[in-house]
Amino acid sequence: LVGLAGPGQAQSGDLKPNTFEEITSYNNFYEFGTDKGDPARYASRMTTSPWTVRIDGMVDRPADYTFEDIMARMTVEERIYRLRCVETWSMVVPWNGFELADLLKMAGVKSGAKYVAFETLLRPEEMPGVRFPVLDWPYVEGLRLDEAMHPLTIMATGIYGRDIPNQNGAPLRLVVPWKYGFKSIKSVVRITLTDKQPPTSWNKSLPREYGFYSNVNPEVDHPRWSQATEKRIGAGLFARNQPTLMMNGYADEVASLYAGMDLAKNY
Amino acid sequence: MLADQVNTAVRRIPVWLVYCLGLLPAPWFLYLGLTGGLGVEPIKALEHELGLLALQIMVAGLCITPLRRYAGLNLLRFRRALGVLCFTYVALHLLVWLVLDVQSLARIWADIVKRPYITIGMSAFVLMIPLALTSNDLSVRKLGPLWRRLHKLTYVVVPLGAIHFVMLRKGFQLEPLVYLLAIAVLLALRLPVLARPRRVSRA
């Protein structure tokens, strides 16, 4: 694997990535169904070309940017990150992508913007899962601007050097490695800069269980299960649970973003 | 009549065959789990398969009385086998959860007291123990009318199992609600207002 200098690489030495097969067969992408195998089964129905991302709100250059426009102006690099799902499983993914900060700079963030809102594609004729109101579609997520601008935060467009498969959020998705996986919204069609904290899908659905921040934190349990340990995907039937790391192992880089905040309250 | 033909055919099926066939999924799931057939995270998958099968057997067991009452189909001689199989799968589901999933005694106890869906699932299991222990001819004879009353606990256990399933899923999901609805309907059929006079006299 090509080691690129940069943030997130410090930990990658001891990280053994999951196989391409594991990463692309066990997914949560509820637009295609709630079973872990549904996205791999049905996401091929999603048309990902042409693709545009509307960047709007408090930006200097609001526009519908085509995927090709974006890729022509971004520098793609490899980032090997842990992915920790709120459901207590985890994997290691060698993403290819670019820093979200670079994309936001391309659109020009206006002073006064404090948050970034994201939205997933909603196309019912290609998404069998949205027939059921599991969530209030389209899927939406959000970050504080400083979280979005952090060098660890990327928009991923590939895995193992290949185009990102549909079930993993083609053609481009957010990856915020120190937060539970559901924050890393897939198949993004809209990015809006705003001065108000944007609504997020899981928080709207079950506010007691899923907060706006959703930072990986072994000390703050989910109301229905402990977050102290995790199961590494691909480790087999008799695998031992692994201890979950504070901020998913990225605390040195990101803990300062939350200085002075009560992480049990801001879960 | 079709029901009579089916009843005659069914009478030839020995109960031990139901036990044997009913137990086959257990080693099959274990084999799948060990060989990658349950996907890349086999622990949860095995736990869920065993729990779901237990719930499906519960639903099948609840169908026996309405089938007899409304369709004249007599499957009563398989009811004990279904009950015992169901208990077996709930016990295996619990065992996988304890040994392979949670892996820590302290956390198991914490989960049982702190997490309502686990409290409910565990209560259902505990309530099933006296039912499993008295699923034999000797107990039926010894307990007499008390046996029938004791086994009405089924009507508590089955909805608890379905509620446990609804609560453990993330969000508002269809599959567990379908089970809950089916169970609610099957239990409602037993309400005195809905229970019509039986077409087939008690054997």
From TrEMBL, chain B:
Chief location: membrane
Protein's cellular compartments: Cell membrane; Membrane
UniProt remark on cofactor binding: Binds 1 FMN per subunit. Binds 1 heme b (iron(II)-protoporphyrin IX) group per subunit.
Residues of the Ferric oxidoreductase domain: 51-161
TM helices/strands, residue ranges: 12-30, 50-70, 82-100, 112-133, 153-171, 177-195
Membrane topology: Multi-pass membrane protein
Keyword Transport: yes
Annotated keywords: Cell membrane, Electron transport, Flavoprotein, FMN, Heme, Iron, Membrane, Metal-binding, Transmembrane, Transmembrane helix, Transport
Described function: Part of the MsrPQ system that repairs oxidized periplasmic proteins containing methionine sulfoxide residues (Met-O), using respiratory chain electrons. Thus protects these proteins from oxidative-stress damage caused by reactive species of oxygen and chlorine generated by the host defense mechanisms. MsrPQ is essential for the maintenance of envelope integrity under bleach stress, rescuing a wide series of structurally unrelated periplasmic proteins from methionine oxidation.
PANTHER family recorded: PROTEIN-METHIONINE-SULFOXIDE REDUCTASE HEME-BINDING SUBUNIT MSRQ
HAMAP family per record: MsrQ (MF_01207)
Annotated protein name in UniProt: Protein-methionine-sulfoxide reductase heme-binding subunit MsrQ
Organism: Seohaeicola saemankumensis
